[in-house]
Amino acid sequence: MLASRLRALLASSTASTADGATLERLLRERLFVLAEQAEIDPFGNPILLMALEFSRMMDGGQASAGAIDQLIQRLSVKSFADRVDRQVRYLGDMDPQGNALAIAAVVRAVAGTPLLPFEAFRTRIERVVLGIVLTAHPTFGMPVELARALMRMASGRDEAGGPLGSTAGAETLREVMNAEHLPPQDLTLAVEHEFSVEALGHIQAALDRVNEIVLDVAAELYPERWTELRPSLITAASWVGYDLDGRTDIAWSDTFAKRLGVKLAQLKRHRAAAQRLAAVEKPVAAALAPAVEQLDRAIAMVEREQAVLATVSGHPERVGELSHLFVEGRDAGLVSAAPLRAAVAAGLAASEDRVVRRDLVALDASLMSHGLGLAHTHVRLNATQLHNAIRKQVGMETAPNDPSHRRSYHNAINDLLGAVEPVKVNFADLMAERATAKRLFMIVQQMVKYVDADTPVRFLIAETEAGFTLLTALYYARLFGVEDQVEISPLYETAEALERGDGIIEEALRSPHYKAYLKRTGRLTVQFGFSDSGRYLGQMAATFMIERLRLRLATLLARHELGDVQIVLFNTHGESIGRGGHPSSLVDRLRYVSPPVTRANFANLGIAVKEEVSFQGGDGFLPFMGFASALAVLRGVLETMLLPDPEAVEDPIYRENDYAVEFFATIQQLFESLVEDPNYAVLVSAYGANLVPRTGSRPTKRQHDGSARAMEVTHVSQIRAIPNNAILQQLGLLANTLYGVGRARAKDPELFNELTQRSPRFRRAMVMVETALGFSDLDVLKAHIDTLNPGMWLSRSAVTRRPTRATELRGVSSALERLDLYPALIKLYRRLQADFLDLTDRAGAHGGGLEGKLEPDRHHTLVLLHVVRLALIHRIYLLAMHVPDFSPHHGLMRADIVARLIRLDVPGAVQLLKDIFPKVDPGALPAEARVAEPSTYEGEATQGYAREHETLFDPLLALYGQVLRLSNAIAYQIGAVG
Known about the structure:
With 978 residues, this protein is mostly helical. It has an eight-stranded parallel barrel with strand order 1-2-3-4-5-6-7-8, surrounded by eight helices. Strand 4, helix 20 and strand 5 (486-492) form a beta-alpha-beta unit.
């Protein structure tokens, strides 16, 4: 295993890294001693004590700047190796040959013994059981090069799936050892999109291999009819570049360009497949020649369209040229896969070679399933954006679910649906339209006209809480002529939406237009938001509410006689337990968000279900950074979704419905009270997102003045879900997974223990709690809070023998007194501490506690990361006391800059300082004046503030850079960002 070799390299450090290795050994030894002392001293905090000791080592020279940098790199690489191990455990066997055999076994099991009739087998093989959706959530914690290296190490194979030789393996290890281990510096939407396109390419290659395996087995079992099959078990989709929820930085041209890029990549794949097949048999070459020519023309046309589109935002006058290009090149650019499929059918009729026929059928299956794109398209916006667009037309003055106006709003939008006539738009209309909702529907119309007319576009609506919202979306779909090309999907993520999500759809069903739309398209799509619901309700309670809503939706469809309508259940969880992603394995992840009992319930009602899961950002794209790991994902999906599941037969948790309802309702009530606690908002905003590197292209900071007070939030709703989760992870207590579970368990500890042992569903949830416990440490949280305690810094000043240090320490204390964060934080800490102790309960006062699951070595590494980072944060505070005084600058005083440094807004504070104290280059002053009239005067204009830059501003940035590297390593340990 390459991860083991990586650890061996660290263990056998060369002389150049000996300082870092020695420092790590000393810290681990000292940490062990302090941890033992903590067992008998409840008043000491080993984390804070260790951070103070490390700070003294820095003062005394035992921890030089070089040694600290080496230490950080060692801990980062070690954490990276642990993340490699996690991927191995998560995906299981990644040998392509072994996975091919496993997939073939699944297909044989589907065919059954005795053999299913062909038509029944065909129905099973051509029915999608899972959709993989790539979403650009801000979790890009490493550059794409490092992501590739991680998966090479995990799989032992290169990106194409071939064995990783010794030379390539050694090069991969060198790359990891020398990498910076931070997100991409220039993290733009384009970078995220390129990342997603690479991942989608591997998904498509793995899907092709799955289809080949299905057809090989079918050829053996059904030799007379196997070529009639068009396997379609798994689909791929993406919203990278199309998600406008809360974003104003994505222009329509960006969205369109990203969709063209996905099309271009797929056209090139299809051309390569056609050329490969044409090279085998002359009759096949003749049949496929028209397809190859069409693909050549289409690729050239799309590249021309992309080139012009890239210039439109800066040169709007070129939109006319763009329009002509799309209109005149529509046929050449291909907007339907039908001509390609016709050529493939001709090739199939001309060939007698079984392997060639198989590959032709597989190509046709790809064309049928994904058309002219590597992925299906998901666009997304917020319900409010729809409401703002329709407000005047329906006279909307209140929220759409306002009981006093709900009926009138419903009637008004229903009348509009009955009278609307479709309109055609052009690209000039797109440029002129200001309403985001209208513009997005216009983009979809242009996509249907000029990119892909065959494949439906998913239209996701965040924060849907009223049937009116769905009818509004349907109105605009009808207005812009894409009603039959869009799948309108509500996103449920708030308590109200999860409690009455079926009622929201039922409201929409009162409109004959909506019911007719569902029957015509044959599909009802629903999205569940695990991240936001977990942020507001607690992850345990949110998942339970989502499952209950799934069951109610099945009943709803049956009640409205919509059994012939397929339901698509899109679970937008992720790879983090804070976002609903199960940590044990891919199979556990699928079973957790799509419990076997609920899947069986839909089957018993005769309702076809397609499950979809999101793979979010850099964390989620990881398994698809190579063919071998992508195939391992598909193998896990097929085994889980196609084979009989013993958990679907009986699970005790469903018999104990009253207990389950009360258990999770208790968690919800307790967590909601925590969320409403103003002190909780103080905790998550004390450092805020400054504690973590920027991991996404979405703007994370709202505009504010320069004061630290303006950076505070009064409610966690002001912080997005993933940064909120990331902050909790970095502070050392995963409250959104843990909070309330202890007290819920204490209500009936005996039944809790019984269900934990006997119920797979309940046990799987508790594994998430135990995992969160493994990454949580009250001492770590307390150390961060005490860092903001003015009294701690005063106490330190009382014992130091260095006058300069005493002044610094008292200055930090005064700055913290002005911020006045500690009283709220220590009060909240006591609340979190009591809840945490209820959960762990060493004394068994409440029926025995749960324990965290983390290997000792990983636990020590995680603690060291926190310790070293705390010491560096303390160093930033001490340096902040050397900020020189200055006259008010745009309303800012020195205290404002210091406060921003205290809250770790180091880049913003330093930039302000550099503006106030510029580093002037004397050579930039007028040379002619200096020559004409020599001077011996040296003023500020000629001296500048080079010393401040060298001794204060640059060191602050360097320390903060180290803080971010340590934060990223903590994310490595936890296995996900946020």
